[in-house]
Design brief:
Layout (H helix, E strand, L loop, with lengths): L26 H32 L8 H36 L14 H6 L11
Helix pairs in contact: 1-2
Length: 133
């Protein structure tokens, strides 16, 4: 990664589970936090891509013979993939908020059974129970 470019690790943006025995967090608050974290991740990754593009403009454009060219292309590809994943996560969060507003949050889309609270605590945007995940 070019110097000064932050890495966007999507795993670092998952909500931490509540301590054992603690009350389950408010799903709307958990979804809002996940949405904010995901938007921050997307902004950071967009900055990463901009830095990579800028570094590429300064580099030799012959990727086949430039050892840095292949690295920059790989880093951009990785960042682009992470942005796509984060946008999917953002859409999942928005869909979960819509289910919450409609009164369908916490029910499996496949079987209609309640999604266990522990799963929703870890994955607030979950659409399916573990059996149908």
């Amino acid at each position: 990664m070019p110097e000064g470019v932050a890495s966007g690790d999507p795993a670092s943006h998952l909500p931490a589970p509540a301590p054992e025995g603690a009350a389950h967090p408010d799903p709307r608050a958990a979804l809002a936090a996940l949405r904010a974290d995901t938007l921050a991740l997307i902004r950071g990754l967009d900055r990463d891509v901009a830095a990579i593009v800028e570094a590429r403009q300064d580099a030799n454009s012959d990727d086949e013979h430039d050892p840095e060219g292949a690295t920059l292309a790989f880093e951009r590809s990785q960042s682009d993939a992470m942005i796509r994943e984060a946008r999917v996560r953002l859409a999942d969060v928005d869909a979960a908020v819509a289910r919450l507003d409609a009164g369908a949050y916490g029910r499996c889309e496949v079987c209609g059974e309640p999604i266990p609270a522990g799963r929703l605590e870890i994955r607030p945007a979950a659409r399916r129970c573990v059996a149908h995940a």
